[in-house]
Amino acid sequence: MRKAALLDLSDAYKGRRVLVTGHTGFKGSWISAWLHKLGADVYGVSLDPPTNPNLFDACDLKSKMTSLIVDTRHAQELHAAISKIRPEIILHLAAQPLVRRSYADPLETFDTNVMGSANLMQVCMTVDGIKAIVCVTTDKVYLNNEWEWPYRENDRLGGVDPYSASKACVELIAYVYQHNLYKAAGRPRMATVRGGNVVGGGNWSADRIVPDIVRAIVSGQPIELRNPTAVRPWQHVLELCEGYLEIGARLAAGEAEIDDSWNFGPRAANEVTVETLLHTTLDAWGKPNWPVKVNPSPLHEAELLRLDISKALNRLSWQPRLNIDQTLRWTAEWYRAFYEQSRHPWDLVTDQIDAFAELRALAETQTVK
């Protein structure tokens, strides 16, 4: 298949009605901000922000989009909201995203991730005008054999922990809608997107390594690591947001063979241990000698998980733009500026979106050449 050129995201989204589920979360806030800058008419359906502080409130995103507090587990409320919004493109990010929380409350995780997603897909059967759904899952949908080879989109799905299993179930449900229930004329097209471990400014979730580092530094406490030798495919949140936007635009444009599953991960050089991430982040913050202690978790966590991104590289011209040092420097600089109150959070977000867009534009020029 011929390699596609990068899309002009402004042309693709300007003036379009775009719904982001989970818009009050970390990734949802970043992608909502980017959509606003692209000129989209942005709507959000979500629960209240999950943490305090949080990026949604810090950036005053409520003034820049239409925000509705709706639980995707409540099918009737969700149907009413989407019927009122009548979006063209839906980016479905709403989820219970924490592995350790899934152990504490498996039923909440299954209910939110599986039934919440199924409700959304079913609602989209009955609301006219929806052209595209981007269903966000995770790299953890794969049955992880802890081997060195990266997982491809057609590898076996599975999960040992409740979170991973719930997201693998979402992939199976999405396949039914993609390849059966949405085949009738006028139905939306849908793709699932699988990303690695995301970092970036504005995340205060529990049991996330970078937020844990930030909380420790701000409170003057030692940093606790659960699994310093674990290798993860670390990537900046904007890398994933770009992939989601690219897929959504191509689906809405009617491009062939996009309604499929897609991996969006970093290059191999960004696959480093938790310990390496820690020290790189501390160096970028200017606190290389911060105290650290190891407190192993009794819960199962994967040691090694890698994604094969060749499909997105070859068919979309999407590519990772930030190396591991840039990824962690952008992240550390965001938090440092936030806590020093040297810049407004909205300016921090939009400046990094602009810088990332410049890298995208440069890559597009090189692709054309």
Give the helix/strand layout.
Blueprint: H1 9-13, E1 17-21, H2 26-38, E2 41-46, H3 55-58, E3 66-69, H4 75-85, E4 89-92, H5 99-104, H6 106-123, E5 132-136, H7 162-181, E6 189-195, E7 197-199, H8 209-219, E8 223-225, E9 231-236, H9 237-252, E10 261-264, E11 271-273, H10 274-285, E12 292-294, H11 310-316, H12 324-340, H13 345-368
Parallel strand pairs: 1-2, 1-4, 2-3, 4-5, 5-6, 6-10, 7-9, 8-12
Antiparallel strand pairs: 9-11
How would you concisely characterize the structure shown here?
With 369 residues, this protein is an alpha/beta fold. The protein has 13 helices and twelve strands.
What is the fold-level CATH name, i.e. the topology? Rossmann fold
Structural class: alpha/beta
How many domains would you count in the coordinates?
1
The span between the termini is 19 Å
Number of helices: 13
Give the uncertain stretches in residue-range form: none
- Strand segment tally: 12
Task: Assign the CATH architecture.
Answer: 3-Layer(aba) Sandwich
Q: What is the succession of H and E elements?
A: HEHEHEHEHHEHEEHEEHEEHEHHH
Structure description:
The chain is an alpha/beta fold and 369 residues long. The chain has one domain: 3-Layer(aba) Sandwich (Rossmann fold), CATH 3.40.50. It is 44% helix and 14% strand. The protein has 13 helices and 12 strands. It has a 7-stranded parallel β-sheet with strand order 3-2-1-4-5-6-10, sandwiched between helices. It has a 3-stranded mixed β-sheet with strand order 7-9-11. Strands 8-12 form a two-stranded parallel sheet. α3 (55-58) links the parallel β2 (41-46) and β3 (66-69). The longest helix is centred in the last third of the chain and has 24 residues, at 345-368. The protein is globular.
